[in-house]
Specification:
CATH class: Alpha Beta
Order of helices and strands: EHEHEHE
CATH architecture: 2-Layer Sandwich
Shape: globular
Distance between the termini: 11 Å
Strand content: 25-35%
Number of strands: 4
Strand order of the largest sheet: 2-3-1-4
């Protein structure tokens, strides 16, 4: 497999769902222009609280929030490193242009190398 995955889990105020979708659409255009192959944003539907760990616990979800799950597919880790650096500098992703409708400090993210894709 020759691609790289950047994954995210975050808590979004439920009232900000439409703003989140628009923010994600705007960001996806930028990421794709800088090399991402695919951008997927998902709104939590069945995301239970856990006893030891869970998505809601990981992002410190508040009662009026919904967990969102997202991933970006890049052609390679090198493409990710180059593309994400350019995307983060892109004026269209700056807070004054495309403000995050969620608390960016509670976003979990990481890069992953696929090992099974069936």
């Amino acid at each position: 497999m020759s691609y790289y995955v950047q994954g995210f889990v975050l808590a979004v105020p439920t009232a900000n769902k439409e703003a989140f979708i628009q923010h994600a659409r705007n960001a996806a255009k930028v990421f794709k222009e800088h090399g991402a192959l695919r951008c997927v944003e998902c709104w939590g539907d069945e995301v239970p609280d856990g006893e030891v760990t869970s998505f809601p616990m990981a992002v410190k979800k508040k009662p009026d929030e919904t967990v969102a799950f997202a991933w970006l597919i890049w052609p390679s880790k090198q493409a990710f490193e180059t593309g994400i650096a350019k995307a983060m500098e892109d004026p269209r992703l700056q807070q004054d242009t495309n403000p995050m409708p969620f608390d960016g400090k509670r976003v979990m993210y990481g890069g992953f190398v696929p090992v099974v894709d069936e």
